[in-house]
Amino acid sequence: MIAASLSDIATFLRIAERGSLTAAARDLGQSPTAVSRRLARLEERLGVRLVNRTTRRLSLTDEGLAFQARTARVLADLEDAEAEVSRGQSAAVGQLRVTTTFAFGRRFLAETVHAFQQDHPRLRVHLDASDRVVDLVEDGFDLAVRFGALADSSLITRRLADNLPVLCASPEYLDRRGRPTSLADLADHDAIVFGRPARDVWTFADNTQLQVTGALTTNDGDLAHVWALQGAGVIQKSIWEVADDVRAGRLELVLPHLPLRSEPIHAVFPPGRLTSARVRLFLAFLTISLPSVWRTQIAPVLRSSSPSYE
To answer: Are residues 254 and 268 in the same domain?
Structure first.
C-alpha cells in the first residue's frame, strides 16, 4: 500500500512538473492511460481533486498546489536517502527547488544550475525567478540566492560572493548631459527609479544619501535597465547585472570613485536542509562557481573603470 502510494505521488509530481499527462507519461515510460489511472487513484484515496483537466490545458487545484509543495520535498528526501545508502553522499538526486531574482537568475544562476545538473544527471532542478522574497518553507524551496540584508533570522545563510551596486548610464546620455564628477553634479541628472516601492534615495558607502528624481519610474528592474541602455538617465544596479554592458561599452559607470553601500550575495536555506545531499552539493558548487565568476568577470570591469578598486 505504501509503495503504491509513493508511486502514485511520484506520478502526480511529474504531471505537475510537466503540466501535461502525455509529457509525464513519456518521461515515466508509461502510457497516458496508465498515468491518468494513477492520478485518479491518488485523488480517490485523498478525497480531493488535485488537477483540473480540460481538452486544452491542465492546471493544479489549490489542493493540488498544497499537496505538491509538501510531497515534493518528502519524495526528494527519500531519493536522497536511497542515494546516500547505496552510493555514498557524492550524488544529488530527486528535485532541487531554488529561487532567486529575475536578473541574477537569467544572467548567472541559469548557467550554474545547468552545469550542476549535468554533473548530477539523476537530479531535476526547478529554478524560480521572482523579485519578491518567498517563504522558503511555506513555498517548498530548498535554497534561495539573495542579495542584501536578510530579515528572517530563523534561516541559515552562507556568503557566496561580493556584490557592489553601481551607478551607470549610456555613453549617449552622458555625452548629452555631461559626466558628473560629484554628488552635486549627479543631483542635476535624470534618475531611473525602480523597485517596490521605488527607491529614490541612493545611499553611498560613507552613508551619504542623495535624493534623486526622474521622469521614468517602474516596479521592474529589467525594464529600468532597458531605459538606461536607451539613454533615459542614470540607474543604480548591481554590478553583476550590468558588467556585460559596461564591458561592451553600452553603459558607463558614473562616479565609480564614490562607491555605494554594498551587501553580499548569500545562499539562504531552512534549518536541516544540509542533511540533503542535493542541497549540500549544490551549495558547495555555488561557493566555488560564483566567487570564480566575480574574480574573472566582474572585478576586472570595476578595476578598468576605477583603478583604485581592490
So the answer is: no
Mean pLDDT along residues 129-157: 82
Domain holding 15: CATH number?
1.10.10.10
pLDDT in tens, 226-269: 999 999 999 999 999 999 999 999 999 999 999 998 888 999 99
**pLDDT tens profile 165-208:** 999 999 999 999 999 999 999 999 999 999 877 788 999 999 99
Choose the final residue of a domain: 36, 63, 90.
90
Residue 89 scores a pLDDT above 60:
no
Domain that holds residue 300: 91-162+263-310
Same-domain pairing of 80 and 101: no
71 Cβ contact partners less than 8 Å away, ≥ 6 residues apart: 9, 12, 13
H-type alpha helices, the chain: 2-18, 21-28, 32-46, 62-87, 102-104, 110-119, 171-177, 183-186, 221-229, 239-248, 277-293, 299-305
Residues 48 and 179 in one domain: no
In one letter, which amino acid is 28? Answer: L
Residue 139 phi, psi (nearest 5): -95, 5
Pairing state of beta strands 216-218 and 143-147? unpaired
Q: How many CB atoms lie within 10 A of CB 149?
A: 7
Specify the 3-state DSSP secondary structure of 49.
coil
The reported pLDDT for the residue numbered 1 is 41
pLDDT confidence of 143, banded at 50, 70, 90? very high
Q: How many domains does the chain have?
A: 3
